[in-house]
Amino acid sequence: MSFAPLSNDTFLRACRRQATDYTPLWLMRQAGRYLPEYKATRAKAGSFMGLATNVDYATEVTLQPLARFTLDAAILFSDILTVPDAMGLGLSFAEGEGPRFAKVVRDEAAVDALAVPDMDKLRYVFDAVTSIRKALNGRVPLIGFSGSPWTLACYMVEGKGSDDYRMVKSLMYSRPDLMHRILATNADAVAAYLNAQIDAGAQAVMIFDSWGGVLADGAFQEFSLAYTTRVLAQLKRTGVDGTDVPRLVFTKGGALWLEDMKPLDCEVLGLDWTANLARARALVGGAVGGPGKALQGNIDPNVLFAPPEQIAAQARRVLDSFGTPHTDRSSTGPTHIFNLGHGISQFTPPEHVAALVETVHQYSRSQRAGG
Predict the structure, then answer these.
(1) Are 112 and 50 in contact (CB under 8 A)?
(2) Could you say which of 79, 244, 260, 300 is catalytic?
(3) How far apart are CA 298 and CA 314, in angstroms?
């Protein structure tokens, strides 16, 4: 496969802790329900899975936000629950209800039945990656992604989203042996899934540990971090272009475990809005010329409901919190990728997103120019 050369590699450079002219920006869930054009495409598709499993529709909605905003990366339009669906758990999305599985994994028999799925069952995802990459035509890089082993396990045991994680934590505390078996299978499935996305053309891959932050200290390291580590150890380092593929890890609620995450074999750590970027930079950002992690985040998505001038002020605050990124092109050093602290709300006015994008690009350029 050959793809057009990148005309904007700012995001990838920041992932690699290389100096950039401005702070790159993309948004978690940027292709989605806050855009009227997304709603129109979803109506044509008939359902969320109809959208996600149709290569043309998935390509269309991935590119929609890039037509409106000067974002620095595209992210594959898909769902984190495609992997357990391919394991035979029967994923469906009821309107206004969120995801639900027909089968749950709560006992020995269900755990025994789990296996890394045949990746051919997820061919629609990989075909979408290749289609999107072609449609982007080098405009910006494409990010592939998966849920983390722990986050997938939460849905697999609960059967749907949860407020209290009662089922999954009950299993974890009463039968840790079963939980470890679920997580090992999930980790190997996630690694195979992300590697297939890389082979299809993904230029970076992200692991969403959306529910890691619900775990107790100690349990996080044992049941989430250990299995994210297992995924990262299996990932391909080189993409179809022969270039390296940066790996991003985002744990919602994970800021208190930054030092535990520092040794992770990944390039970028994502942070939610509870994290202090200056502190994170001091802990894991590294020095110029030395090792470290690029940081991604971390404005509160609800800031986007404020008027544009307040959005601009809060964006500047986040950029100031990280501080001036390094500008030495001959060396690596602390870098920042601007993002939300979690996915964008479906109620966000698109014009407010435009205000955010414009502010981040302008203000981050002025930071590098010395104010």
Answers:
(1) no
(2) 79
(3) 11
CB 26 within 8 A of CB 143: yes
N residues, the chain = 371
Which one of 42, 106, 133, 281 is the catalytic residue?
Answer: 42
| 85 is known as an active-site residue | no
The CATH number assigned to the domain with range 26-291 reads 3.20.20.210
- DSSP assignment letter at 36: H
Which residue out of 22, 38, 57, 155 is catalytically annotated?
A: 155
Is there a catalytic annotation at residue 155?
A: yes
Nearest to 22 by CA among 369, 277, 349: 369
Catalytic option among 33, 100, 139, 175: 33
pLDDT of residue 371: 60
What are the residue boundaries of the structural domains of the chain, listed by start?
Answer: 26-291
pLDDT at 336: 98
User: Among the options 13, 17, 22, 29, which is catalytic?
Assistant: 29
Report the pLDDT value the prediction gives residue 93, as an integer from 0 to 100: 85
Say whether pLDDT at 231 is over 70.
yes
Model confidence at 237, in pLDDT bands (50, 70, 90)?
very high
To the query of whether residue 33 is one of the catalytic residues in this protein, the response is yes
Lowest mean pLDDT segment, chosen from 89-93, 314-318, 342-346: 89-93
pLDDT computed for residue 370 by the predictor: 77
The strands making up 142-147's β-sheet, listed across from edge to edge, are 74-75, 142-147, 204-209, 247-251, 268-270, 294-299, 336-340
Reported as a pLDDT band with limits 50, 70 and 90, residue 1 is confident
- For the question of residue 29 being annotated catalytic, the response is yes
- Please confirm, yes or no, whether 139 is among the known catalytic residues: no
